[in-house]
Amino acid sequence: QPSEPLLEVNNIEVIYNHVILVLKGVSLSVPRGGITALLGGNGAGKTTTLKAISNLLASERGAVTKGSIRYRGQRVQDLDPAELVRRGVIQVMEGRHCFEHLTVEENLLTGAYTRTDGAAAIRRDLDMVYGYFPRLAERRKSQAGYTSGGEQQMCAMGRALMSRPETILLDEPSMGLAPQLVEQIFAIVRAVNEGEGVTFLLAEQNTNVALRFAHYGYILESGRVVMDGPADALRENPDVKEFYLGVG
Ligand code: ATP
């Protein structure tokens, strides 16, 4: 069972362009070894929260103006994104972002760039990734730009795994994918979580699937957490059913 908080976001505010207040005091606790889902509709602030954690807001003229973000107890909000990767936190951005002109395997290998443990270990991890994503093994010599949306999502996740992360921040993995594929992607998240002990914080609009695979969920509305709880409890909650699960 997940326990000790690995990542703690405490009452953060995020402002874009000096004036647009988008996160209005968001707090989250991500336990080591868990799958935590960040839920909510379009524009609720999920992506902004992930980018605040991985320090990717500056390029969008956004900034954390209040609150704190701690990883393993240490303040991380002023760190270079690459330093965060070295500490074990990697983000898989919304919309995949594979290098289109590289093959699938070359894409995976780019994920190992921060590692210093040598070719044999990297080779072993490539096999580990192909174990979780058999489809990537079949497509490893294909140019990523010519693979399907689902394969590109897998490629982006596989590349993240090649950095041997402790924590993956996964933004909207279901985006644009057919239901069956969404199911497959989430099953792989669960398998990687259980098999490698990787901690996940994932942002997802598809509440239904996210709450079936995650352990714990936070629901964001207009930049605030309006509800949180164990995934099973949220799935049974009448408000969640009515407003997020489409039944009620
Ligand atoms: P989505 O599923 O659409 O990504 P989200 O919950 O991830 O939704 P965010 O992308 O975090 O939401 O956006 C939250 C709010 O911040 C939205 O109102 C959006 O318009 C605004 N926003 C996002 N990026 C910027 C930016 N660079 N400059 C100004 N406002 C922004």
Automatic annotation (TrEMBL):
Any single Pfam family the record assigns to this protein: ABC_tran
Nucleotide-binding listed as a keyword: yes
Gene3D superfamilies listed in its UniProt record: P-loop containing nucleotide triphosphate hydrolases
Entry keyword set: Amino-acid transport, ATP-binding, Nucleotide-binding, Transport
Domain ABC transporter: start-end pairs: 7-247
SMART domains hit by this protein: AAA
Domain of life: Bacteria
Entry GO MF terms: ATP binding
Protein family (similarity comment): Belongs to the ABC transporter superfamily.
Name assigned to this protein: ABC transporter ATP-binding protein
Originating organism: Paracoccus pacificus
Annotated InterPro entries: AAA+_ATPase, ABC_transporter-like_ATP-bd, BCAA_Transport_ATP-bd_LivF, P-loop_NTPase
